[in-house]
Amino acid sequence: MKMPREAFLKVVMEAADLDVWENELVSGMVTRKATKIYAELGYSEQEAGDCMENIFSIIHPDDVDRMKSSINNHASGPPASQ
Q1: By the number of CB atoms within 10 A of the CB, which of 5, 17, 52, 76 ranks highest?
Q2: For residue range 30-57, what is the model confidence (pLDDT) as tens digits?
Q3: pTM for this predicted structure
Q4: Pairwise CA distance, residues 48 & 16, whole Å
């Protein structure tokens, strides 16, 4: 019997001791928190927040604008061919 994709991904992530941060790009609402990563950095699950803006609080201030720009570029998709 084949395991559903989501269940398989969960098993693989747990076995590899990985974590994932997932959010809706349009609203910025977090759909899956990277709680292991936050814990390793000394933050609680509550500090991880429910909105993408919260992730910027743990980024060095000099890097926030560059990171936001990279996220926006990624969300916009590949550049149009000329």
Answers
A1: 52
A2: 777 777 777 887 877 777 666 666 777 7
A3: 0.48
A4: 22
